[in-house]
Amino acid sequence: MPDTNSKKQNTNVGPLNDLMTYHLRRAQVCAFNNFTEAMTETQVTPGQFGVLTLIASNKGISQSAVARALGVERSTMVAVIDGLQNRGLVVRKPSPTDRRSNALELSDKGQEIYERGLELAKNGDRKTASALSDEEAVQLVTLLRKLNSAIDG
Amino acid sequence: MPDTNSKKQNTNVGPLNDLMTYHLRRAQVCAFNNFTEAMTETQVTPGQFGVLTLIASNKGISQSAVARALGVERSTMVAVIDGLQNRGLVVRKPSPTDRRSNALELSDKGQEIYERGLELAKNGDRKTASALSDEEAVQLVTLLRKLNSAIDG
DNA sequence: TATTGTTATACTCTATAACTATA
DNA sequence: TATAGTTATAGAGTATAACAATA
């Protein structure tokens, strides 16, 4: 990870300072770093946590459905599920209604890790939002949700 | 790029919906896609545009200073500058004050591409923010700027 | 001693295309 | 015909560690 705390003079970023894309990028990198740090204990990445949450909230969901919900290709999901299965957190069961698809479930250990991870993820969020008041943090999430609803709605 | 416009039923993303990190990630992917689409004409990526802007706003800046300002390693900058130099957009000049470092400048073509790119980048931003009112878009950037100031301040 | 640019290397995340087995 | 899971492959983007030249 590059040095973000350096006491060097702040370089003028020019018109970048008015670009939403730039600030979204910086904020996302910051959020991922805080998330990863907060989740150390579980060794679960942001992407993996998304998958665990989808499965926890939709028992028996298929790999393709998880991929669609998270906005990635289903081929990308294979290795992710492989990793979670190898760690004993997720189980691929045969779907009772479609012999092509896997019904994904959390193992007991997966459920534990997920529940613990949810608390830790909230800690990461709090650190990311530490420069904002509670009200501002809520405002930010509300705006982001609205922005995103345009694409996955 | 995965299908984000599918008319499939929306899967319940559970507690993800309350995580700032999740929404930042979705928004950033959306913003990058819109940026890339808007910039097609220039064939300049978000990362490259950041570098062009830094150089435009700080003529003679060093590679290390660009890297620090953008929050990446200086080793990462080498290939980026190489690419921009090979396209004839950026020039590495010897620094007049430090024989270790390069003084980066935009070529005339680089200046042109940068100025055109800035307009196109704003178009990308507008598309990203299309679900928000003007006031909300400003609010969002303000909040993100405040959030980010905590790390690069 | 510290910093600049560089190289070599590797890792993560992701996409595309094609295959198979089902639906 | 279309979809689910899979494989093989490739491309961004990035980091770490080391080195020579210079500060």
Overall, the morphology of chain A is elongated
Task: Kindly identify the CATH topology of chain A.
Answer: Arc Repressor Mutant, subunit A
Tally of structural domains of chain A: 1
Q: Which percent bin holds the helix content of chain A?
A: 55-70%
CATH architecture of chain A: Orthogonal Bundle
* Helix and strand composition category of chain A: mainly alpha
Q: What's the mean pLDDT score of chain A?
A: 94
What is the terminal separation of chain A in angstroms? 35 Å
How many H/I helices of chain A?
6
Share of β-strand residues of chain A: 5-15%
Name the features.
6 helices; Arc Repressor Mutant, subunit A; elongated; DNA-binding; two-stranded antiparallel sheet; 153 residues
Describe the structure in your own words:
The structure is a homodimer of 153-residue chains. Chain A has helices at residues 20-38, 46-57, 63-70, 74-86, 108-128, 134-152, and strands spanning 90-94, 102-106. Chain A is mainly alpha-helical and 153 residues long. The first copy, chain A, has a single domain (16-131), classed as Arc Repressor Mutant, subunit A (Orthogonal Bundle). In chain A, strand 1 and strand 2 (102-106) form a beta hairpin. The relative contact order of chain A is 0.12. Chains A and B meet through helix 1, helix 2, helix 3, helix 5 and helix 6 of A and helix 1, helix 2, helix 3, helix 5 and helix 6 of B. Chain A binds a DNA duplex (23 and 23 nucleotides) through helix 4.
